[in-house]
Structures are given as structure tokens and as C-alpha cells.
Write a structure and sequence with these properties.
By secondary structure, the protein is mainly alpha-helical. It contains 16 helices and 4 strands. A hairpin with a 2-residue loop joins strand 2 and strand 3. The two termini are about 40 Å apart.
Length: about 375
């Protein structure tokens, strides 16, 4: 009898720990990573078509970039339209250092991260002098300077772009266009999971609260002793770091980079993903990223109208932004929250009606 009791007690303790872990903020993130990796593992057996899985990698790299923009816009309240230029800089930097300079991909990645910090510091200092739409215009100008450099510099292959035909080896995995299932996908998922956890920690830390204070009122934030220099620099450092990281991972995965890719339309799409998903939710931004960058490849390409007019998906994105801003300023994630509350309210009402029917209204 004692042994049976001990087993029951041990089982109860184990279930309690499992329940506590499932409520941890990291649990859904780790679960998402497990599901994404499992999809690739199952896909390698031929159960899932390669075309279905291959669209995930660019979407996930865009999501990494959108996470940085989430902190910049949603929490620090700073606008930037230079995202595409920073991504392109990371992509070309890895390609040039690996292909031409003979530097290992890992070292090129580290150099890219260091350069992103330098670039973020420069833009951060600019944000101390100007803000609002003027800051967006300045960052757009910087992005256009970078794009013009990509188009005309022999270091980047000019208008013909850059192509790593021989492939690239990064963190023990080999990326090549001849592979049906690229193993770099696993590295992208791991990077995404780590950066999601890091983003949550920043948001819930004093740094995240300082970002919000500056966004709400710079005068009040300064009166409370919050340094504009420190936190505006931090916001741009993080956003630039995430953008350059996304660009480098894109290059390692696709092995190609063309100047036209890194235009203002990409920056606006990242902005749209954050606005549509929700400017204060990493899960909302994930939904927004799939809507902006994934729906085109999964759904819109199958509709004749969008097949005829290749750029019509931009109108779709614009219409979504208008609808979200007008009716759901909190983003699509707020819609899911409202639906959840509605379902719970309906369930509770149904239980109450059933109890009144079964036991009478006095119960």
C-alpha cells in the first residue's frame, strides 16, 4: 500500500511540474521550434512536398527581422525604413567575405554582427537629433544609399547580383541549391527560437519598460532619470542586429543576393507584418509575418488575378493595414484574444443555462 501511495504521489508531483512548465513563457516558443524542426524531419521522408517547406525559411528569416522592428517601433516608438538596406548589407557581407576574401562563414557572420552594432550606433545617434517621419526619411535615405552601392559596386556583383555557386558551409552544415531539403533550415529555426526568448526577456526587463516610457513621453521619461541616449541607442542596436542577422541567414540559405531585393518594398512589408500582427506581441508579429510573406506563396499565387498581376499582393497588404488600423489597432493578435474571450464567455453562459435547467434557478 505504501508503495502504491508513493507512486501516486510521485505521479502527482510529476504532473504538477509538467503543468507549471507548460505555463512558462518559454514553453510555447520551444514547442514551436520542435514543431518546425519536426516538419523538416518528416518532410525529408517525402511525406511533405519540398515546395511546402521551402517557403518557410524566408518567412522565418523575415520574422527574425520583424522581431527587431517590434522592439524599435512597438516599444521604443521609433520609425525606420532602412530595414531592407541593413538586411542586404548582411547578405552581401557574408557572400563577399566567404567567396572573395576567403573568410570562413562563421567568422564572416561574427564580423557582420560587429558591423551591425556599429551601424546601429550611428543610426541611434541620428535618432537623438530627429524623430518621427523625419527619422524614417533619414533611414530610408541610408537604405537607398546602400541599395545604390549594391547595384554599382564590383564587390557585390553589381546589377547582376551575387551567387555562391559552390555553396557555403556554416556551423557544420552545407548549404547548396542542389539540396531538396536544406539543413540550414535547422540553424534558422534555432536562431529564431533563441532571439524570440531574448526578445521576451528584453520586453519584460527594465529595458523594455524604459522603451515604453520613452515612447509615451520623452519628457516624462527624462524626468524619471531614463537616459534617451542609452535606450534609443539600445533600440537601434537591437533592430539593426536582428536585420543584419536576418540578411546573413537569408544569404546562407538562398546563396543569392540581388540589389532589387533590398528595396523599400521589403522595408514596408516588414513594417506591415508588425502593424498587422500587433506591435507589442511576438506571436502577433509571427502571424503578421506569415500573412505578409507566407500567404503570397501559399494562397495568392493560386488565384488567377494575382497570377496575372504580379504586384497585386501589395494592394492586398495595403488593404489589410487599413482594416487593422481602423478596426483592430492592436493587431490581428487582439482579434484572437477577443475570440478567445468570446468563446469562454459563451461556454460559461452555456454551463450556467445547463445548471439552471438541471437544478433550477436557485442553485
Amino acid at each position: 500500500m505504501k508503495l502504491t501511495y508513493d507512486k501516486k504521489q510521485e505521479k502527482h508531483i510529476w504532473l504538477t511540474k509538467l503543468t507549471q512548465f507548460s505555463k512558462h513563457p518559454y514553453f510555447p516558443i520551444l514547442l514551436l521550434g520542435f514543431v518546425l524542426i519536426l516538419l523538416q524531419v518528416i518532410g525529408s521522408t517525402g511525406v511533405i512536398k519540398p515546395s511546402v517547406l521551402n517557403f518557410l525559411s524566408p518567412v522565418l528569416t523575415r520574422y527574425i527581422v520583424a522581431l527587431g522592428f517590434l522592439m524599435l517601433l512597438g516599444y521604443a516608438g521609433l520609425a525606420s525604413l532602412g530595414t531592407a538596406g541593413f538586411m542586404g548589407l548582411g547578405a552581401y557581407l557574408v557572400g563577399y567575405l566567404f567567396e572573395t576574401a576567403g573568410v570562413s562563414a562563421e567568422m564572416a557572420f561574427i564580423i557582420g554582427l560587429i558591423l551591425s552594432l556599429v551601424l546601429g550606433t550611428i543610426v541611434g545617434f541620428i535618432s537623438l537629433r530627429i524623430e518621427g517621419m523625419y527619422l524614417a526619411i533619414v533611414t530610408l535615405g541610408l537604405s537607398e544609399i546602400l541599395k545604390n552601392f549594391f547595384q554599382n559596386s564590383p564587390l557585390t556583383g553589381g546589377a547582376m547580383g551575387m551567387n555562391l555557386e559552390a555553396g557555403i558551409k556554416f556551423l557544420g552544415t552545407f548549404s547548396s541549391n542542389t539540396l531538396t531539403y536544406n539543413p540550414v533550415y535547422y540553424i534558422i529555426v534555432i536562431f529564431m527560437i533563441v532571439l524570440m526568448i531574448w526578445t521576451i526577456n528584453i520586453i519584460k526587463s527594465p529595458t523594455g519598460r524604459a522603451f515604453l516610457s520613452i515612447k509615451n513621453s520623452t519628457s516624462a521619461a527624462q524626468a524619471m532619470g531614463i537616459s534617451l541616449l542609452k535606450y534609443r541607442l539600445s533600440a537601434f542596436l537591437l533592430a539593426t542586429l536582428f536585420a543584419v542577422t536576418g540578411g546573413m541567414l537569408t544569404m546562407i540559405r538562398s546563396l543569392t543576393a540581388y540589389p532589387a531585393t533590398w528595396g523599400i518594398d521589403l522595408s514596408l512589408n516588414v513594417l506591415a507584418a508588425v502593424v498587422i500582427g500587433g506591435t507589442k506581441s511576438i506571436w502577433g508579429v509571427l502571424i503578421g509575418t506569415f500573412i505578409i510573406f507566407g500567404m503570397k506563396d501559399l494562397i495568392l499565387v493560386k488565384i488567377p488575378f494575382f497570377q496575372t498581376y504580379k504586384n497585386a499582393h501589395l494592394m492586398f497588404s495595403g488593404a489589410l493595414i487599413i482594416l487593422v488600423v481602423m478596426f483592430y489597432p492592436g493587431g490581428v493578435i487582439k482579434l484572437f484574444t477577443d475570440l478567445k474571450a468570446l468563446v469562454i464567455k459563451g461556454y460559461n453562459k452555456l454551463i450556467t443555462v445547463w445548471k439552471e435547467y438541471r437544478y433550477g434557478k436557485d442553485i
